Amino acid sequence: SYESIFINYFDLELRDGWELDEFLKFVSSFNIKYKVYGIEACKELYDKLHTKYIANSNIEIFHLAISSKDDQLINLYHSKDYDGNSIFKTKNNLLNINKNFEMCKTKRISTFIQDIKKSNNTINIIKANIEGAEYDVIKDLQSENKLDYFDYYIGAGWTTDMHWIEELQPKVQEIKQILKNNNIKTYYFAQGWNEKNNINFNNLIHS
Question: What is the pTM of this model?
């Protein structure tokens, strides 16, 4: 039964909202109480998302980029159709980085969650397909002793995107070790060619 639980769902890169919509189908089908904290760094996508979800009071959308520092203005480099935008300019599928970028304000994940309390009946899910910034998320949560704030880590793979970014490739094993040392299991959930492997939310909560 889901009557007594409340889910906080943190989506660190919304894009067009497909993954969020899949989560919303789940909570609506079981009448689960929830709150969504959605983040999108691209202003054009943020504007569309804000319009799309404005009628749902359980969803808050933030125009931010998750990074290792708070309140910095950094470049967000564009990929084709904004499908893999990244704060890392060495990512291997970006458009011309000298022409295709925008400025965006940053926030650390630990700062973002500091005022969102967690109770015994609350389940916190974090979804990250954030084109390499997973490194900043894990390192920040580790340094602030908040890795256990989240019950479930889902996404395309918490080290997958790091392989596509030159300066992060040597740090892949470091992140894998942090996850292992803290008994954190990650679950696949992403839009695209591999959707057949997406975690079933109902199975996830009962895992």
Answer: 0.96
In the numeric block, the tokens 């909570």 are attached to 27
Total Cβ atoms within 10 A of residue 88: 20
How far is Cα 177 from Cα 8, in angstroms, rounded to an integer?
26
CA atoms of 50 and 64, how far apart (whole Å): 13
CA dihedral 167, 168, 173, 179 (to 10 degrees): 150
Q: Give me 10's structure tokens.
A: 């943190």
Give the per-residue pLDDT at 3: 87
CB 86 within 8 A of CB 41: no
User: Each residue of 19-50: pLDDT tens digit?
Assistant: 999 999 999 999 999 999 999 999 999 999 99
| 169 contacts 162 by C-beta, under 8 angstroms | yes
